[in-house]
Design brief:
With 392 residues, this protein is of the alpha+beta class. It folds into four domains: 1-37, no CATH class; 40-50 and 308-389, Beta Barrel (Elongation Factor Tu (Ef-tu), domain 3); 55-83 and 276-306, OB fold (Dihydrolipoamide Acetyltransferase, E2P); 86-275, Substrate Binding Domain Of Dnak, Chain:A, Domain 2, CATH 1.20.1270. 51% of the residues lie in helices and 23% in strands. Strands 1-10-16-13-12-17 form a six-stranded antiparallel β-barrel. Strand 14 (357-359) and strand 15 (362-365) form a beta hairpin. Helix 2 (86-110) packs antiparallel against helix 3 and helix 3 packs antiparallel against helix 4. The longest helix is centred in the middle third of the chain and has 64 residues, at 115-178. It is flat.
Length: 392
């Protein structure tokens, strides 16, 4: 969008008057006044919040609740998406039991041996054995039931999709073999049917791969819990034996280390449980939600786009290396939008990227423009037109 400066308008008026006088009076025309156009730069940009983020899952799992939708306003810390927390809650419970056991065993070792202490140590050994049984049962349940069923269902869906694809391929080949005898709409219908079948096969394969990945991760977690429970059981047995024989300083030090390890395990399990809840990192408005209830998600997968719409600004997308050297921070610009064709907004360049970003036509530099006023009609993602008038 190029603007004609006042000097150009004045020059055109003077030239027009001179021509008029020559045509009417026959007098010698006045010397032409050279029109001067202030050089300017016109680029496009995009409206984005100064503060925005794609909020991702910090661990894999199944989305059981999606509590926001595009346009929802949230405060910092508000819950956006909740993942299935059953495994994480079990891990926390096991870690709490293990820590209580480790602390009790340390107290037993530090206290004088007595019939009561020996009996208590025996009870705690039984508790550790119960933890082992519980974790082994959970592993067996996952290995033989829940996970196998999920994988089998995904494999069955892939087989069904491949069967439909083969059927669509045969139908397509048969139609093509007829040549000109087949009607055009029949050929188009066969091609669309084959394409849809191919897409279904691709989606089924992706889902099977995702189910297998998450299943392997869950089994590894449960196997690790079984190993830890077995280790705690062995430690409980050893500490009971030591209590019966009388604890040494070295044995007490080992018990103290076990307590520290159990505390760290509880912290880790609590963190994993906390990460089943995806929360807003700051106050803002939800721009996009890319997850549905029941979907499997993986760690790092973006789920919600969140932005502070009170901080909308314009970032250029096509300012090239020739023009970037002509502008400076603090320079005023004019900004317009297709949605508001009759309005021009005044803005100021607040930042020029020091590094180029590759673009379709070469390299581009991002320039941040902050508007003096933002019309409520302006939305996140709108295209902006930025005019930068340069000094002569």
């Amino acid at each position: 969008m190029r603007r004609i400066t006042f000097s150009l308008i004045a020059g055109l008026l003077v030239a027009g008057l001179a021509v008029g006088c020559t045509e009417q009076g026959g007098e010698e025309a006045a010397p032409e006044t050279e029109a001067r156009v202030a050089p300017d730069i016109s680029v496009t940009g995009e409206v984005v919040p100064a503060v925005w983020a794609e909020v991702s899952a910090r661990q894999s799992g199944t989305a059981v609740q999606v509590l926001v939708e595009p346009g929802s306003r949230v405060a910092e810390g508000d819950l956006l998406v909740r993942l299935d927390a059953a495994d994480a809650e079990l891990a926390v419970q096991q870690a709490e039991v293990a820590l209580a056991t480790a602390r009790s065993q340390l107290l037993l070792l530090e206290a004088p041996s007595s019939a009561e202490n020996v009996a208590l140590a025996g009870a705690e050994l039984a508790n550790a054995q119960a933890v082992v049984s519980q974790t082994v049962a959970e592993r067996n349940r996952l290995a033989s039931g829940a996970i196998s069923a999920e994988i089998a269902a995904a494999e069955s869906a892939l087989a069904d999709a491949e069967a439909l694809w083969k059927e669509a391929q045969l139908y397509y080949d048969a139609i093509q073999a007829k040549g000109d005898e087949a009607k055009d709409w029949v050929k188009q219908e066969a091609a669309l049917r084959l394409r849809a079948a191919e897409q279904s096969v691709g989606a089924a394969r992706m889902r099977l791969a995702l189910v297998r990945t998450i299943a392997d991760a869950r089994l590894r977690e449960v196997d690790a819990a079984v190993d830890e429970a077995a280790a705690w059981q062995d430690a409980a047995q050893s500490r009971l034996d030591m209590l019966l024989a009388g604890a040494t300083a070295e044995e007490i030090a080992v018990a103290q280390a076990s307590v520290s390890k159990a505390e760290a395990a509880l912290d880790e399990a609590s963190l994993a449980l906390e990460r089943t809840e995806v929360r807003a990192p700051f106050a803002g408005t939800v721009g996009m939600v890319d997850v549905r209830e029941g979907e499997l998600v993986v760690a790092g997968q973006p789920l919600v786009a969140l932005g502070d719409l009170d901080t909308l600004r314009v970032e250029t997308t096509d300012l090239d290396e020739i023009d970037v050297v002509k502008i400076a921070v603090g320079q005023q610009v004019d900004v317009s939008f297709d949605a508001l064709p009759e309005q021009v907004f005044v803005g100021e360049i607040t930042r020029i990227s020091p590094m180029a970003e590759p673009g379709s036509g070469g390299v581009n530099y991002t320039v941040v423009v902050v508007l003096d006023e933002v019309d409520p009609v302006v939305k996140w993602g709108m295209t902006a037109f930025v005019d930068i008038e340069l000094e002569e």
